[in-house]
Amino acid sequence: MIYASYLWLLLCYAQNARSNLDEESVEELSNRFLGRGTPQWHSLPIRLDVDRASGCLCRSTYNRKVIVCFGNYNCKKIPRVKMKSDLLKVRTTSITSVHIGDLDVFYYLKILEIEANHQLTYIEPGSFRNLSNLEHLSISYNTALYTIGNRTFEGLRNLRNLTLVNNGFTNIRLLTPALIPSILPSLKWLDLSKNNLEEIPEDAFVPMQGTLLQKLDVCLCRLDFIHPNSFLPLKELKKLHIGENDLDPSLIGNFLAKMSQSNINLSYLDLSGMGFRKYPPKELMYIIAQTTIKTLILAQNQFEIIPDDAFPEMVNIELLDLRKVFAISIGSNTFEPRKFPNLKILLLGGNNLPGVHKKPLSSQLLLLDLSNNKGNSENPMYYEIDQDAFLGTKSLKILNIGFNMIKSIHNYTFRGLDNLKMLNMENGTLYYIGPGTFKYTKHLEILNLANNPLNVNGNNFTSAQFEGLNKLEVLILSNCGITNFNDDDNIFEMMPMLLHLILRNNQLYFITAETLKPLKCLQVLDLSENLLISWWKPLFLAAGVKPLQLYLTNNKISHFTISMIQDISYLLEDRHNRTVEIDLMNNVFTCDCSTMYETALWLEMNGSAPLRQYFSHSKFQCNSPDVWESFRVSNYMESMKKSHCYVYKKISNVIILVWTAPSLVTLILIAIIGLFLYKYRVYIKYWIFLAKLALGRTFIRNSLKADKCEPKKYKYDAFVSYSNEDREFISEVITQLEKSPPYLKLCIYERDFEIGSFISESVLSSINESKFVVLVISTNFARSQWCRWETQLAEYHRIFLEDGTNYDPLILIKIGEIESKYLTATLKFLMKTKVYHTWDENNREEFWIKLRNVLTKDVHI
């Protein structure tokens, strides 16, 4: 969705600069630049029948394009899946061998992955004879597979990518005879990484003479020797990945020189994690400078200081990767245009650089990555951008300074970035944006400000802050603490071309039509994980905005108003065969006649065909009542008996009448009594005087002053309710709260209940004698009958406090993911309506500080 635009910008660079960056390289670079790791794997919600012939269990995606089969000890043969797909994965099985005929039924496959089958020892030559459509084959992580037969891959005429990662191979000369061009004529990419090869001798690739191989990966193979002539048979080789090995720079220089002399024109060289220290090896850099290499990866080495003379003149280099090299300083002329006249992409993320200064930047750069230069948790470092630091980088189109501790940006910060198209500042400490900050970036198309405390002080955004963003197409403001937008000073009036607006994970209760009105071009609006409730006035219809994708997941929407139905209908109509996505999953829909009858009636009488189709195919679910929980809203609406709801409505009208009639009579009586009191007010005053006189004689000595109430003293600061299976966590609770300041007193039933007493009575008295009640909620807690009973008592205690306190004594702590099937109605209600503390191993100190603050806060009774 959003990241397609990032990828598009990088692709544009690859085309305009006529560089060697193909789509694969650009996608890899995009993932690095955006801080994304390996793409998330497809969900596999469809369970297929167990394959009886093999014992394997298989699952697939909704579109049936991906099938994964597994089974551990039960899956002993290649499964015979009848359903056709593009990709088949066979993993974590007990398959020991693959024989001719086992794979013949998969003639339609384009991708086959046989991975993590740790008992696989043998693949019979000819097993792939019928897979002529296969383009990608992975035989990886099969640790007992030590060799491949010479004719194993016969039939794979169209195979382009072969991955043989992390098997038991130890001798590369036993592998290459199986990869000869007559058997694999289309092979372009070979990955042998993570095998214990140790060396590549001179004749290693001789059997592959004449191959069209363009990319070779031998990373993490414990290599300590590569013969200078070893790669000479690979005449078409363009990309060589040899990172994370133990190779001497002179060895690398020798085979690079030989390849250059033999007209093997490498364009990509990965030397990451090679253990180079202090500075890049100068002799090796001189040799690389004489080659055709355009992309040089030196990441994850150790160059704390990169001086001016670290690199010679490297006229061919277009991309230089120096991520995570522990750099703390870069010379002012290290990357000057004289030495790097064609350098377009410079990656310096993950280092310890203190900020952006005037000299170290190159004027010809198109993409600059300076992200994640914030030090570490023990030695955090604020990131500083000098005034006018970017004046010399007018060609820059993409700037990544995310994951840095930048406190504020001002109207001079981005001066000089006239051609900037993408700016990433996510995951920083940015809390202030000065007026006119973006007025110099008038060509900016993508702005990512996610995960910054922009609204930490409750200040609204102003249009002056976003002045100059007339061409902005993507704005990401996820998790910025936004509570509302100011319609009188609408920031979106500065962004008339905005296509994607991402506001997920903020604190928005509502959004108005006035806010959205300037966004006539909007295509994607993400409002997920906010606090939005049902709206009573048309929003998109009134604003005239029709996004193609609207995300409202994980909000507080409880029912459909007529205005919401009209908005959805408006978004679905006349889209000229363009797919519209409106996601309302994980809201708190109430499925009963009072909330759904009017909706269903309106849909039946006024709903368009697309609107009715949308509701019939929707997957959002009822949240209450319990009888309809986890059922789709559409199922309830379809099964709802109109006569029943009609009777319900009539009864409701009768009930209203029954309540209204006595109220009217009561008002009339009050009016009559009021008139009577007014008419005889003189006599009434006289009667009251006589009554006061009589009472005074009887109670003259009674004190009329009320004693001042004293605060109730509690025996315990908190009663802790927990499951026995969570004792380890409770031990840490006792250590953190009782044995550390402010030394709280907790009631732990295993320790504090009297021996021989009734548990139920002890629980009741302990809750009453405790200032707070702490529920440690986990799956074990939800399964426990005693814990459920204690939860019920705690809820009653919260609602009907006998001592009249005005604070909430109930505190929830969540440990891990809780299986929903064990949650009672009370627990579900508490989890949805109360803010709870979530145990996080990575933020232990922050968790204990928050819990202590709650337990020690002052309360008034």
Automatic annotation (TrEMBL):
<feature type="signal peptide">
    <location>
        <begin position="1"/>
        <end position="19"/>
    </location>
</feature>
<dbReference type="InterPro" id="IPR032675">
    <property type="entry name" value="LRR_dom_sf"/>
</dbReference>
<keyword id="KW-0812">Transmembrane</keyword>
<dbReference type="InterPro" id="IPR001611">
    <property type="entry name" value="Leu-rich_rpt"/>
</dbReference>
<keyword id="KW-0433">Leucine-rich repeat</keyword>
<keyword id="KW-0325">Glycoprotein</keyword>
<dbReference type="GO" id="GO:0002224">
    <property type="term" value="P:toll-like receptor signaling pathway"/>
</dbReference>
<dbReference type="InterPro" id="IPR017241">
    <property type="entry name" value="Toll-like_receptor"/>
</dbReference>
<keyword id="KW-0677">Repeat</keyword>
<dbReference type="GO" id="GO:0004888">
    <property type="term" value="F:transmembrane signaling receptor activity"/>
</dbReference>
<dbReference type="Pfam" id="PF13855">
    <property type="entry name" value="LRR_8"/>
</dbReference>
<feature type="domain" description="TIR">
    <location>
        <begin position="714"/>
        <end position="855"/>
    </location>
</feature>
<dbReference type="InterPro" id="IPR035897">
    <property type="entry name" value="Toll_tir_struct_dom_sf"/>
</dbReference>
<comment type="similarity">
    <text>Belongs to the Toll-like receptor family.</text>
</comment>
<keyword id="KW-1133">Transmembrane helix</keyword>
<feature type="transmembrane region" description="Helical">
    <location>
        <begin position="654"/>
        <end position="678"/>
    </location>
</feature>
<dbReference type="GO" id="GO:0006955">
    <property type="term" value="P:immune response"/>
</dbReference>
<keyword id="KW-0732">Signal</keyword>
<keyword id="KW-0675">Receptor</keyword>
<dbReference type="InterPro" id="IPR000157">
    <property type="entry name" value="TIR_dom"/>
</dbReference>
<dbReference type="GO" id="GO:0005886">
    <property type="term" value="C:plasma membrane"/>
</dbReference>
<dbReference type="Pfam" id="PF00560">
    <property type="entry name" value="LRR_1"/>
</dbReference>
<dbReference type="InterPro" id="IPR003591">
    <property type="entry name" value="Leu-rich_rpt_typical-subtyp"/>
</dbReference>
<dbReference type="Pfam" id="PF01582">
    <property type="entry name" value="TIR"/>
</dbReference>
<keyword id="KW-0472">Membrane</keyword>
<protein>
    <submittedName>
        <fullName>Toll-like receptor 2</fullName>
    </submittedName>
</protein>
